[in-house]
Amino acid sequence: MNKELLDLYTDYLLSSFGQTTATGLSKLMDGAISHDQVSRMLASPRITSKDWWRMVKPQVRKIEQADGVMIVDDSIEEKVYTDENEIICWHYDHAKGRNVKGINFLTTLYYAQGIALPVAFEIVSKTEHYIDKKTGKEKRRSKTTKNEYYRRMLQATFRNKIPFKYVLNDIWFASAENMRFVKLDLEKDFIMALKSNRKVALSEDDKSNGKYQRIDQLELTEGSTLIIYLEGVPFPLHLVRQVFKNEDGSEGVRYLVTSDLTLDADQIIAIYHKRWKVEEYHRSLKQNASLAKSPTRTETTQTNHLVAALWSFVKIELLKVQTNKNHYQLKAQLYFSALQQAFQELRNLRSELPTQPSAA
To answer: CB count, 10 Å around CB of 282?
Structure first.
């Protein structure tokens, strides 16, 4: 991909407040860049996660440190009016509790020294067609599960020698296989959230005898840890019960487990709090980096636009550090600057109008 043109395109994504099109960028550059040049860039060979690592590697090397964390999560960007294909299709949205049409992507976000950078990504591609036995309707599915993507991305970060201490993820990736992979294959520790109905044993004997009980039925006080054993996980874990306030003022309960038995409850909760960075990343990617504002139509151009949005996020994240302003303050600054120019342009146009007749 043309790096200079990608740089212009990603600046365009950050500075835009409406639809982002090849024609729009061409007009913005007063024709110095043609519509076809932008279209050809987006239609160039599809950028993979391996390509992405080569792009972001220099920035990662500047911030990496041994106590960094890898945060894995997925998100769906709705594309209601875009034609369906293998990556723009129907996915179940856990947050909304229903299927939505859009692009489902996973990210491994590296967080160190107060900076969050995406270091690996995968797009869920539903290439297989099948008939749903319940409804009789044809549906799509992916050959690769999200948990397989999870392990593939983490394996890549390990292979790329990015230093980190913990893997953080929510309940959707808290499988026994993922726990074994992080602890035994990568030789790293993890902190994961568990469903309240997850069954655990309180001793190795209980585990051997199949004596399990639900987490939410345990007598576990806030601020304390408990040694537990999970089926399929050949090592003990520390469990902590976290009580927190929701935005509406109501109380919520979260159960966290870690493979690092040296951590106390406060440390577990504090480290897991860093997982919130991936929520901020998803929100900024959609609201500030124009992820959903491109009318791209093919799987290649849709993928490359997503990668461009990732690069736009990297730019604004680094600007955040440089300017000591958050993403939304930076975007507001751009908006105000554009408003000032539009206001002045209107004043200039009005100055060319004939003098208005006075009222009789």
So the answer is: 20
Alpha-carbon gap, residue 26 to 219, rounded angstroms: 64
Closest CA to 167 of 159, 181, 296: 181
Distance between CA 55 and CA 312 in Å, rounded? 12
Contact 300, 43 (CB under 8 A): yes
Q: What is the pTM of this model?
A: 0.94
SS (H, E, C) 182-223: HHHHCCCEEEEEECCCCEEECCHHHHHCCCCEEHHHCCCCCC
Long-range contacts of 299-302 (CB under 8 A, 24+ apart): 299/46, 299/85, 299/86, 299/87, 299/88, 299/125, 300/42, 300/43, 300/44, 300/45, 300/46, 301/39, 301/42, 301/43, 302/82, 302/87, 302/88, 302/103
Q: What is the pLDDT of residues 55-69, one digit of tens each?
A: 999 999 999 999 999
The single-letter DSSP state of residue 172 is: G
The per-residue b/e assignment along 99-119, b for 16 or more CB within 10 angstroms, e otherwise, is ebebbbbbbbbbbbeebbbbb
- pLDDT at residue number 356: 61
How far apart are the C-alpha atoms of 324 and 301, rounded to whole Å?
Answer: 34
Which carries the bigger pLDDT value, residue 60 or residue 251?
Answer: 60
Tell me the pairing of strands 115-123 and 98-112. antiparallel
DSSP 181: I
Contact by Cβ (8 Å): 127, 154: no
Residue 355 pLDDT class (50, 70, 90 cuts): low
CB-count exposure of residue 78 (10 Å: 0-12, 13-18, 19+): middle
Which of helix, strand or coil describes residue 74? strand
